[in-house]
Amino acid sequence: MAVVLLITSKASLFLPLTHLPHQVVTITPRDQVLSASAACDIVLVDARTDVVSAKKLCQMFKTAGVVVPRVAILAEDGLTAYSRDWGCEDFLMDSITATELATRLRILTASGHDADTRIAIGPLVIDEAAYSVWLDHAPLDLTYTEFELLKYLATHPGRVFSRDQLLTEVWGYDYYGGTRTVDVHVRRLRAKLGSEHESLIGTVRNVGYRFTAK
């Protein structure tokens, strides 16, 4: 199952998507489209009603260096306006069938952004390739060590790690600091996760920490 970001001004969902087993996130062009795209496998830009604005939106993704594949949805009268300088991997017609759409999405997600580099646990998405973390589709501003610590815990959900183990695995064998640095980084991570999600990093008394998936 892919995570599809649909950027559209229309109130109704793009009909063929309703027949596919994908998670669809729908936002408008006025929302934080760049931030939302990082947690998705593919971006569909609805160009059926405003071709000019849709083209500018697609080009903005390209300028920002976004690697998530993008596809423009076009009506028949918008075909003449579409060209390679949109910066999209493909386009599709609004009359596309669900079967064809499923095939196109499967090919694009397989050859585009590598979903294997992402760890998705509930509202948390860790993108190893982009060194970014998203929580409820909003980016978290983490330091390098905070990112590595969260990634290490999240890739071993439920397993308890002592502070010494975390120092070895995250900070490295040549780190000579005390174990208190682990507590400091955990405290900072929990603060950035917020009160609603700070329990993702659980404390095991007299032992250490573990990642607790919700």
Explain how this protein is built.
The chain is of the alpha/beta class and 214 residues long. 31% of the residues lie in helices and 23% in strands. It is built from six helices and twelve strands. Strand 7 and strand 8 form a beta hairpin. Helix 4 crosses helix 5 and helix 4 packs across helix 6. It is elongated. The two termini are 20 Å apart. 28% of the residues are buried.
As a percent range, the share of helical residues equals 25-40%
Give the helix tally: 6
Rough shape? elongated
Strand order of the largest sheet: 2-1-3-4-5
Oligomer: single chain
* Helix/strand structural class: alpha/beta
Characterize the biggest β-sheet. Answer: 5 strands, parallel
Alpha carbon gyration radius? 20 Å
Give a concise summary.
The chain is an alpha/beta fold and 214 residues long. The chain has helices at 33-37, 51-63, 98-111, 144-154, 163-171, 180-193; strands spanning 3-7, 23-27, 42-46, 70-74, 90-93, 118-121, 124-127, 132-135, 138-140, 161-162, 201-204, 208-211. 31% of the residues lie in helices and 23% in strands.
